[in-house]
Amino acid sequence: METVDLLIKNGQVVTAAGHDGPVAGENMNELEVLENGCVAVKGEQIVAVGLEDKVMSEVQITDKTRIIDATDKVVTPGLIDSHTHFIFGGSREDEFVMRIQGASYMEIMEAGGGILNTVRATRAASLEELKELGRKRLDWMLKMGTTTVESKSGYGLNLEAELKQLQASYELNQEHPMDIVNTFLGAHAWPEEYKDDHEGYIKVIIEEMLPKVKEAGLAEFCDVFCEKGVFSIEETREIMLAAKEMGFDLKLHADEMTSLGGAELAAELRAVSAEHLLMISDEGIDAMRDKGVMAVLLPATAFTLRKPYAPVQKMMEAGLPFALATDFNPGSSPTPSLPLAMTIACLYMQLTPEAVFNAVTINAAYALKRADQIGSIEVGKQADLVIFDIDSYRKIPYFYGVNLVDKVIKKGKVVVD
Ligand code: NIG
Ligand code: FE
């Protein structure tokens, strides 16, 4: 019998297991939960899951095994934040005040603020400074139960600063318990230097940035902010096709402020995911479903910008799978908290606690192409687990504004205790 390093027992275990593909439609409201469940871990892996009798018949405890009693606690897979921009210099609380007083996000951006504001601060920061800021934000996220995070560039907008930003999250991935998945988002805004030469900047992205990022192995995904006044459908297609050709997987900021056809484009390009989608068309929903593109929805952004939420009920009816993420960034979503995003999704998108858990675990794993390793509590998967100090998973989105996390286990190690 296998000896184990860690045994968690007597908990309500949300396994989110039992799926061989992304969860969609009515199945979003089904969540596998074990009462009085037990999870056994050896090294970095989950080796047994189930009721205590079953697990104890499969594994052996030694005097080195750490036993955690999770009575009146909930055990979940490590939460996965599949869309963030957490590496950035500066902050934008002045714009927060402007928006309180009535200015819109796009008005601020068109006046040279917004993303470009953060670009100036990020360019001015050193690699070490960006890493220090990033490390602190990773600690925030880890303490709230996130164990894997996607990290987008896009605050450099020139070769050197884009590489610096990606390098910061690449190095943090080695140094911090969090797993970080890098996405190149050089097409996040038109840099000041190229505001009247869009072709010139696209050339820089395709001929300089993408090949360098690929060569250095600094990003897995390529993303574009496809939006009216930012990157058009044609410009987005050109960049995405070049990225695909170089071997990047694709993500897309699509149909956020205007219904531009970004979802349809993501389907045409067989992107892994299309994100935001507040203004997605009915055709876009069907096209994404038919081509297997995951919707990544960002309720904290709609909340912050006071915009209508993505039409998730239509997505459920159409059978389009979706994940939920924070979009953590200094402008449109200054929160690193997935539990808060889950609460907003329940209250304003009328999602059940079961649906939001599926959306931040197994479906989020699919959005990052890691569903074979993370996103559920199943034998053979990485031991990324969260223990919440509350006796029902339904109370996690319900009691908001308080951090309910008791412990976080990352690759078998207790990293928040
Ligand atoms: O996903 N929409 C574009 N990009 C980010 C916002 C970035 C920023 O405002 O700094 C987003 O919301
Ligand atoms: Fe974003």
Automatic annotation (TrEMBL):
One example GO MF annotation: imidazolonepropionase activity
Protein residues bound to 4-imidazolone-5-propanoate: R92, Y155, H188, E256, S332
Co-factor: note: Binds 1 zinc or iron ion per subunit.
Keyword annotations: Cytoplasm, Histidine metabolism, Hydrolase, Iron, Metal-binding, Zinc
Cofactor: Zn(2+); Fe(3+)
Domain Amidohydrolase-related as annotated: residue spans: 74-415
Residues annotated as binding Fe(3+): H83, H85, H253, D327
Binding site for Zn(2+): H83, H85, H253, D327
Gene Ontology terms: biological process: L-histidine catabolic process to glutamate and formamide; L-histidine catabolic process to glutamate and formate
SUPFAM superfamilies given in the database record: Composite domain of metallo-dependent hydrolases (SSF51338), Metallo-dependent hydrolases (SSF51556)
EC number: 3.5.2.7
Keyword Iron carried by entry: yes
Pathway: Amino-acid degradation; L-histidine degradation into L-glutamate; N-formimidoyl-L-glutamate from L-histidine: step 3/3
Family: Belongs to the metallo-dependent hydrolases superfamily. HutI family.
Protein role: Catalyzes the hydrolytic cleavage of the carbon-nitrogen bond in imidazolone-5-propanoate to yield N-formimidoyl-L-glutamate. It is the third step in the universal histidine degradation pathway.
Family annotation (PANTHER family): IMIDAZOLONEPROPIONASE (PTHR42752), IMIDAZOLONEPROPIONASE-RELATED (PTHR42752:SF1)
Protein name: Imidazolonepropionase
Organism: Anoxybacter fermentans
Gene name of the record: hutI
